[in-house]
UniProtKB/TrEMBL annotation:
Protein name: YjbQ family protein
Superkingdom per UniProt: Bacteria
One Pfam entry name: YjbQ
Database matches in PROSITE patterns: UPF0047
Organism of derivation: Alienimonas chondri
Gene3D superfamilies: YjbQ-like
Family from the record: Belongs to the UPF0047 family.
PANTHER family xref list: UNCHARACTERIZED PROTEIN YJBQ-RELATED (PTHR30615), UPF0047 PROTEIN C4A8.02C (PTHR30615:SF8)
InterPro entries per UniProt: UPF0047_YjbQ-like, YjbQ-like_sf
First and last residue of the signal peptide: none
Length: 138
């Protein structure tokens, strides 16, 4: 089976947001698969996706703190036409990546016990974000 769909997420505030449930709800065909792969791609250059710990909400705060320390907004960026958070958002997006692939086993994502799928929003005033979800398997 091959299935591809898009999912539009509403604007989120800057930070790291768990989105696995919304993604899984957008492709209910996952439940039919014995084995497969779900590829999640974000069609934006100032937000990203990542897999990481999903249990303690403090992790999300620490993600944001670490990313801001690694990619500060006060560097002498040349690309500033869209605001001081735009170029750092592009850099953060490149560091974290624009896609993740999730293994599907017996109708469910086969993630580690504490793993969750995050939308990483790097802009202060973000717009909606579009994900392309591609599912294949049997």
């Amino acid at each position: 089976m091959w299935k591809q769909t898009t999912l539009t997420l509403p604007p989120h505030p800057r930070g790291f947001h768990l989105i696995a449930r919304r993604v899984m709800d957008a492709v209910p065909e996952i439940r039919e698969l014995r084995v497969g792969l779900l590829h999640v791609f974000i069609q934006h250059t100032s937000a990203s996706l990542t897999l990481n710990e999903n249990a303690d909400p403090d992790v999300r705060v620490d993600f944001e703190t670490a990313m801001n320390a690694a990619v500060p907004e006060d560097l002498p960026y040349v690309h500033t036409v869209e605001g001081p958070d735009d170029m750092p958002a592009h850099v953060k997006s490149s560091l974290l990546g624009s896609s993740v692939s999730l293994p599907i086993t017996d109708g469910r994502p086969n993630l580690g016990t504490w793993q969750g799928l995050y939308l990483c929003e790097h802009r202060d005033r973000a717009t909606s974000r579009t994900l392309v979800l591609t599912l294949n398997g049997e």
